[in-house]
Design goal:
By secondary structure, the chain is an alpha+beta fold. The chain is 52% helix and 13% strand. It folds into three domains: 24-95; 97-192, L1 transposable element, RRM domain (Alpha-Beta Plaits, 2-Layer Sandwich), CATH 3.30.70.1820; 196-243, no CATH class. It contains six helices and seven strands; from the N terminus they run ααβαββαβαβββα. The strands form two sheets. Strands 2-3-1-4 form a four-stranded antiparallel sheet, with helices on one face. The longest helix has 72 residues, at 23-94. Keywords: Coiled coil. Residues 45-83 form a coiled coil.
Length: 245
C-alpha cells in the first residue's frame, strides 16, 4: 500500500502520463526525469559559461581601457612636469642672461677687480670711452685663500652689451693673465653664467666629448648645445636624460 502511494506521488506531477504499472516502468521514468534534469543543468551550465565568457571579455576590455587611460594620464603628467621644470629653468636662465663669468684669475688680497675688467675690455678691442658698464665681484665668500681662483661675475647693464662683449671673446678666445698685468701667460676664460642644471649637463657633455661620443659642446643663451658629428646641426640639451638618449 505504501509502495502504491509512492508510485502515485512520483507520477502525479505529470497528469498526462499513464500510471506506473511496474518497477521497471518506474525506474525508466525516473531515468528519463534524471536525463531531462541533466539536460536542463547542462543547458544552464552552457548559458552560464557563455555569460561568464562575456563578462570576462567585458572585464578584460574594461581593464585594458583603464590601463590605457592611466598610461595616457601618466604620460600627460610626465609631460606637464617636464614643462614645469623647463619653464622654471628658463626663469632661472633669464636671471643670468646679462652675466658672464671670467675664470682662471688667481685671487690676490690687493687685487682691483675693476682694473681686471678694464684690461679685459681693452684686450677685446674696446676703448675707455666705449667699454660697457659692468658690475663685477668674486663668486666666493670671504676670506679667500691666496692662490685660489673663484670666478669673477661680470653683470652687464644691457643684454646687447653683454652679447657683443661675449661675441668679441668668442671670435678670438685670446685672453690670458698677461692681459691683466700678471707675469705669466696662462689663459683665462669667459663663459656664460649657467644654472646648476646646465652646469651639470655641460660637465657630462664634456666627458662624452672626451670619450669621442660628441663632436662639440658649447652654450648659447644659457642652454647647453651639442653636436654628435661635425656636419650635424647643434641641438639643445635640456636634461640629463636627453643627453644620454
Amino acid at each position: 500500500m505504501s509502495f502504491k502511494r509512492s508510485r502515485e506521488d512520483l507520477t502525479k506531477s505529470d497528469s498526462e502520463d499513464e500510471p506506473v504499472q511496474s518497477l521497471d516502468q518506474l525506474f525508466s521514468r525516473m531515468k528519463s526525469m534524471f536525463e531531462e534534469t541533466n539536460e536542463r543543468i547542462e543547458c544552464c551550465k552552457t548559458d552560464l559559461q557563455s555569460e561568464f565568457a562575456v563578462l570576462r571579455d567585458d572585464m578584460q576590455q574594461f581593464k585594458a581601457e583603464c590601463t590605457n587611460n592611466v598610461n595616457k594620464l601618466s604620460a600627460e603628467l610626465s609631460k606637464t612636469q617636464d614643462n614645469v621644470s623647463l619653464n622654471y629653468e628658463r626663469i632661472l636662465i633669464c636671471g643670468k642672461l646679462n652675466d658672464l663669468l671670467l675664470s682662471g684669475v688667481p685671487y690676490q688680497s690687493s687685487e682691483n677687480i675693476s682694473n681686471y675688467v678694464r684690461s679685459v675690455s681693452l684686450a677685446l678691442g674696446y676703448s675707455d670711452q666705449d667699454r660697457p658698464l659692468i658690475y663685477t665681484k668674486r663668486l666666493a665668500r670671504l676670506p679667500i685663500a691666496d692662490g685660489a681662483a673663484p670666478p669673477l661675475l661680470l653683470q652687464f647693464t644691457f643684454r646687447a652689451a653683454r652679447d657683443e662683449f661675449y661675441r668679441r671673446y668668442l671670435s678670438s678666445r685670446n685672453l690670458s693673465l698677461s692681459h691683466l698685468g700678471f707675469t705669466i701667460n696662462k689663459r683665462i676664460y669667459l663663459n656664460e653664467n649657467l644654472t646648476e642644471l646646465a652646469r651639470a649637463i655641460k660637465g657630462s657633455a664634456l666627458k662624452l666629448k672626451k670619450d669621442g661620443k660628441l663632436h662639440s659642446v658649447f652654450t648659447k643663451d644659457g642652454f647647453v648645445q651639442v653636436k654628435t658629428r661635425a656636419e650635424d646641426e647643434a641641438r639643445p640639451v635640456l636634461s640629463m636624460e636627453q643627453l644620454t638618449n
